[in-house]
Amino acid sequence: MRRTGLLMVGALIWPLSATAAVSPETSDCLDCHRLIHPGIVSEWEKSRHAKATLEEALKKPSLERRVSLSEVPGSLARVAVGCAECHLMNPEKHGDTFDHEGYHVHIVVTPDDCTICHPTEVKQYSQNLMSHAYGNLWNNPVYHNLADSVNGIQTVADMETTFKGPDEQTHADSCLFCHGTVVEVKGTKTRDTVMGEMDFPVLSGWPNQGVGRINPDGSMGACTPCHTRHRFSIEMARKPHTCSQCHKGPDVPAYAVYQVSKHGSKYSSLSQDWNFSAVPWTLGKDFDAPTCATCHISLIVNPEGEVVVERTHGMSDRLPWRIMGLIYAHPHPLSPDTTLIRNKAGLPLPTELTGESAMDYVIDKKEQDGRRQVLQRVCLACHGSGWVEGHWTRFENAIRTTNEMTLTATKIMLTGWEKGAAKGLAQNDSLFNEAIERKWVEQWLFFANSTRFASAMMGADYGVFANGRWYLSKNIQELADWLEFKTKE
Amino acid sequence: MRRTGLLMVGALIWPLSATAAVSPETSDCLDCHRLIHPGIVSEWEKSRHAKATLEEALKKPSLERRVSLSEVPGSLARVAVGCAECHLMNPEKHGDTFDHEGYHVHIVVTPDDCTICHPTEVKQYSQNLMSHAYGNLWNNPVYHNLADSVNGIQTVADMETTFKGPDEQTHADSCLFCHGTVVEVKGTKTRDTVMGEMDFPVLSGWPNQGVGRINPDGSMGACTPCHTRHRFSIEMARKPHTCSQCHKGPDVPAYAVYQVSKHGSKYSSLSQDWNFSAVPWTLGKDFDAPTCATCHISLIVNPEGEVVVERTHGMSDRLPWRIMGLIYAHPHPLSPDTTLIRNKAGLPLPTELTGESAMDYVIDKKEQDGRRQVLQRVCLACHGSGWVEGHWTRFENAIRTTNEMTLTATKIMLTGWEKGAAKGLAQNDSLFNEAIERKWVEQWLFFANSTRFASAMMGADYGVFANGRWYLSKNIQELADWLEFKTKE
Amino acid sequence: MRRTGLLMVGALIWPLSATAAVSPETSDCLDCHRLIHPGIVSEWEKSRHAKATLEEALKKPSLERRVSLSEVPGSLARVAVGCAECHLMNPEKHGDTFDHEGYHVHIVVTPDDCTICHPTEVKQYSQNLMSHAYGNLWNNPVYHNLADSVNGIQTVADMETTFKGPDEQTHADSCLFCHGTVVEVKGTKTRDTVMGEMDFPVLSGWPNQGVGRINPDGSMGACTPCHTRHRFSIEMARKPHTCSQCHKGPDVPAYAVYQVSKHGSKYSSLSQDWNFSAVPWTLGKDFDAPTCATCHISLIVNPEGEVVVERTHGMSDRLPWRIMGLIYAHPHPLSPDTTLIRNKAGLPLPTELTGESAMDYVIDKKEQDGRRQVLQRVCLACHGSGWVEGHWTRFENAIRTTNEMTLTATKIMLTGWEKGAAKGLAQNDSLFNEAIERKWVEQWLFFANSTRFASAMMGADYGVFANGRWYLSKNIQELADWLEFKTKE
Fold first, then answer.
1. Are strands B97-100 and B103-106 parallel, antiparallel or unpaired?
2. What's the CA gap between C161 and A481, in Å, rounded?
3. Around Cβ A369, how many Cβ atoms within 10 Å?
4. HSE-up of B328 (CA within 13 Å, CB side)?
5. Are C323 and C348 a contacting pair, CB within 8 Å?
6. Contact A207 B390 (CB under 8 A)
7. Distance of CA A42 to the CA centre of its chain
8. Peptide bond preceding B240: is omega within 30 degrees of 0, i.e. cis?
9. Strand partners, A157
10. Positive or negative CA dihedral for A331, A337, A343, A347?
11. What is the pairing mode between strands A153-157 and C103-106?
12. How far apart (Å, rounded) are the C-alpha atoms in residues A73 and A355?
């Protein structure tokens, strides 16, 4: 099936959409896979990868460029970025490389493959919390225990419940779906295919598109959660539905809040007329209200072509505060590897149980101010200074008050552990496996989070009745009552 | 008002959209109803029913055909499918037929009316769980009791609550809204209309578009929940919003899960450029990601025009497992009439209270394997074999673990009934009417379901914090605590 | 920077979109603000305000008119409605007027500014509950106390929780986000701007787009929650996402219900082909299913151009019942100022604690019948009389049964207060600050509401498992159990 030495011209093979020349290797792939996996191939045909060569991409003015390499690698310069250009990249580094029709193909394309054309984006992403999402959860004993408590199988006998550790499949289907699995080769399987018998590697943790996936080439992260295979559409990455894949639940209701915000309302009502593909992205011309990407990631210019904010793939580069996932909101961690953090109590948490930040491990006020200013540049393109100041005052007040409400819940919980209403650290037991403990967790993981997201993004009822302050205040009373019931003689 | 013998040409009456000739009877209807019910008429004008005759429909190549009859009934061959063609069909079988301006009109158009042009679809649907949705709920004493417990009116005196049976209107507004009501003629009412005084039948259970509606002609089901009146648009039936009408709540969060899945994200971001009207529906050409219909119902072909899966209106023909609505996930029932089922304990349930399947009443492994293979043909058009195998391994693991978590909750509940914390079968009391019993029901009806849907359709957080494993594990602890509180002296 | 006496022609400055002449004052604004706030300016450029003069607007036939003034004020007749035309209006009445580049500019544009061109709409809105949303919440001691209980900060010591009054920022971020804040000048701030040092007023409660905002000119309400700045698009106001900004949470799930209704499903599937900008709005031609605006606000005509319903900005003019926010559903209040209401117990509530309406303060049966008839005119354009009657019978039955279920919960709560399980009025304590009290509130504020909205708008599962009857019936049992736990020795 291998065909060499023949440069297939895309325009001939794929007359409808592709215009860039296809490499002979990619042509070989397409010969079979357009029949076997027509969905993948047709997606790719619609992609920019199929239509433009790297040489063309690099001729564009700096602000319009979608690649960040400085020199064109000769082998890739004049062909479409097709199957072979990615799935044959760095074969020796890929544990999942296998012999396939005369080629050394690997299954999982990783940031280290993408970096040849997009080095700046990959580097930024690697210095970002999201690329560390697997380790930050799994290698932090507090959080790993939380995952086990959520996913573990419980049995009951004589009114005593027993946890047994969850299996790998359950974790992959739960927390690691978004955080990322460890994808490793676990063996080889022979399959009967339409092309005859063939051998394929068997991968653990596959499929997975988690943002912090541990890849078979040792790299961390994945580009495909946002730049969806095999079209890699910037339009899709810029639309909020992409973020909603992981950021909609009660633990991180960013998308839910956005939907009911004025920004989200404009997106839902008017975005059929916006341009989500233009680079750079011009506010007022291409769009009239921000999506997630506008504020947090994209390169934005004003109608005069002046840069409002630079593109970043460090998702928290414009964020002074981390408002989700941890017990208290706090300044963003210094290092993307948060397993390094130790609070005064020796726990791998960025705050004490009573809320004070572990100052050595989080960004300082100056860095916070800088990040706030960058984000506010986006706000200020459409809102007056008084508006923006008022908004931020309110948001930072919400950070303080939600932290206070979490502290109160935590004090009740501490009393609960002390009084034996639940077993905690002193009994060498999980902090997360009993009903009253779960109520405490919901205080910060659901209700304080929702309240802060609603405040940050002006999501109205998400700060009140839709998982907001209503629950924040009710939950304290329920916690107190539950403790009373548990300790009643 | 009756006009006969005159064939009105649609193109003259409705020059903007309709092109097929309208029958004299339909023309009579339109004369008045375009003034009285302009919304209905304009919808119909935009429909294919108004634009093509049966004769034309049958000339199409087999894969493009939207009708499944084999011979053209003379009377319908060359006219548009208008008001009269449906509302005057089978008048003698329709209990709701009434004299109206010289015609024997019936109000409720049913599958037995639609079958003249769409016999294959109606037959498939009739052998399908959904067409039996009324009886499967109402004629199953366990489930009927659940409905009564949910909908019943409670009063309180001396701290004792009393249930009184819910009224017919409440049931119609609640469970039977989706499951279907019994629509029967209950009398006649004279109304002052713009056309003068007129008599109309009064129908019980009306309005209703439930999928298992019991119709005045004795047929079961309705086509209009998905093929919305009076446009009957295939575009709308294929879009996921149609399914969300019944499949979004915590008991069956299919749409909610889809929305945050990669498939749903692509739909939300890119589907403005897809073609939802083409028959057959070509993957890669007409659409780039599946909607509900793609995987479960539609005829799908690949870009070469080869059939990937045949069309079916038996909604579970591609489903090996039933993952919702019952206490445990189990192989699909053999018969669409599930009231026939008896488990070993004699209850009309497809599993024992402890989870084992009632094997005589559910499909066997071979049938399960066949259905799985059919569904996987859709997956494999865009995903590699390893991907699909990995996904299914994970999903079937979720079925096992969620069943285990339900078993644990059930054991606590059994203890509760035994210890008198709640009144159950032994006391001849409902299993569903006390607080602790409701917690038990939520374990399987909400949390186990959500977890399985999230796993089946890759819906991320719906398997964790959004009604998934977080609640599945927390609920067991709350059940145990609640039992402790209830039994404390 | 001030430039006078020169009439700038919009078509020259803004060739792409604006066609109306811009006043010299607005031209001055645009000179700087198109650079400083390009997002605002580009939004405005796309607006009708930028494209048509009042003189042109008044030439339209009555049904097509979007303005309701009778005489053209000379100064505004022939210029675009630009920055200056609104932000310089009524400077002497505006507490927030400040000197800015030679102009007396005010920040907050209010209904009293809009009234010059839209007097009918402003007047209707002023006689509407929504324009009183601030006072109706804040000046009603029962409801103000509810807000305090939700938003207050709790601390704990020796297992006793203490409330401290919430700060102004929290209220603004919570209830008042939708209800409206009090916007007052609190001082002046000098800011370094790109134009040099400038003074600006500092406003309390800013930013805010609440529907009952108290403005610096003394007026009540805001037009911008629905007519979003600075495009003021009728398309956006008519789309349901606008209403979802405030009407989606569990306390008022109108949008959530709409989404899963047949109407909402048609909107989601088909509205890409509808015309949301036409005035008047023609059913069957411009749209095939209603949005929120269709039923409650818009001027609707049939395809013959006959008026089906007149436009109203009194949002409850077509509503016989108030089904949300209060303990029991009841006929709509007579006056938009509900602080005037006193029930027999002397409380500022439109019903007794046991459900009977405070008849002197709510509309009578005749007015209810009139409003029902107006709303039903919309229904009847697409549905038969039997359909509409059946629907309304069911909806008004849901009002009765949900009120009954609330009464039962209230009786349990009254027993709870009596037995000391919670502190209430007798102890001069809040009715809303303890766990059991919150359960009682959820009965009416969440579950009864959701059930009624689902019934009113045919939202299926929202009447059952999605915050509907499932919770309504379960909550009574939980309330009874909680009371038992609280009062156990």
1. antiparallel
2. 11
3. 12
4. 24
5. no
6. yes
7. 26
8. no
9. A160
10. positive
11. unpaired
12. 51
Spatial distance between the Cα atoms of B310 and A111, rounded to a whole number of angstroms:
39
Joined tokens for residue B251: 């008991």
Q: Is A373 on the interface with C (CB under 8 A)?
A: no
Count residue pairs from A and C with Cβ separation < 8 A.
184
With an 8 Å Cβ cutoff, are A153 and B404 in contact? Answer: yes
Which among A288, A387, A460 is the nearest to C206, CB-wise? A387
User: Which chains lie within 8 Å of chain C at 3 or more CB pairs, if any?
Assistant: A, B
Helix, strand, or coil (residue A354): coil
- Residue C17 corresponds to which amino acid? S
Residue of A nearest to C191 (CA): A385
Helix (H, G, I), strand (E, B) or coil at B336: coil
- Sign of the torsion angle spanned by Cα atoms B160, B161, B165, B167: positive
pLDDT at C20: 82
pLDDT tens for B242-264 read 999 999 999 999 999 999 999 99
Q: A445 in contact with B at a CB cutoff of 8 Å?
A: yes
Cβ of C381 and B37 within 8 Å? yes
Helix (H, G, I), strand (E, B) or coil at A107: coil
C 271-290 residues inside an 8 A Cβ radius of A: 272
What letter would DSSP give residue A60? S
Q: In this complex, is the C-beta atom of A303 within 8 Å of any C-beta atom belonging to chain C? A: yes
pLDDT grade for B166, boundaries at 50, 70 and 90? very high
Helices A469-487 and C469-487 cross at an angle (nearest 10°) of: 40
Rounded distance between C-alpha atoms, residue C246 and residue A261, angstroms: 9
- Whether C154 has a pLDDT exceeding 90, the answer reads yes
Residues linked to residue A189 through DSSP beta bridges, in sequence order: A200
* C192: β partners: C197
Find the closest chain B residue to A179 by CA distance. B460
pLDDT tens-digit series, residues C234-262: 999 999 999 999 999 999 999 999 999 99
Whether C486 and chain B come into contact, CB under 8 Å, resolves to no
Chain B positions touching C463 (Cβ under 8 A) are 173-174, 177
Nearest to C438 among A393, A477, A488 (CB): A477
Supply the angle between the helices A449-457 and A469-487 in degrees, to the nearest 10.
170
DSSP state of C422: S
Tell me whether B241 touches chain C (CB under 8 Å): yes
- Pairwise CA distance, residues B237 & B477, whole Å: 42
**Single-letter residue type at B395:** F
> Which tens digit of pLDDT belongs to each residue from C174-222?
999 999 999 999 999 999 988 899 999 999 999 999 999 999 999 999 9
Distance from CA of A301 to the nearest CA of C (A): 10
Nearest to B394 among A169, A241, A485 (CB): A169
pLDDT band at C7 (very low <50, low <70, confident <90, very high): very low
- ipTM exceeding the 0.90 mark: yes
Q: Does C266 touch chain B (CB under 8 A)?
A: yes
Instruction: Say how many CB pairs under 8 Å bridge B and C.
Output: 183
CA distance B462 to B449: 10
Copy the structure tokens of residue A246: 């992981």
Closest CA to A71 of A55, A86, A84, A85: A55
Rounded Cα distance, A398 and A409, in Å: 16
The distance of Cα C242 from the centroid of its chain, to the nearest Å, equals: 10
Considering only CB atoms, which chain A residues are within 8 Å of C39? Answer: 283-284, 288, 381-382
Inter-chain contact A260–C242, Cβ cutoff 8 Å? no
pTM of the model: 0.95
For testing contact with chain B, the best of C272, C288, C304 (most B CBs within 10 A): C288
The CA distances from residue B273 to A240, B270, B436, C321, in Å, are 18, 6, 50, 43
Written as six digits, the tokens of A413 are 């919980």
Q: How many CB pairs under 8 A join A and B?
A: 183
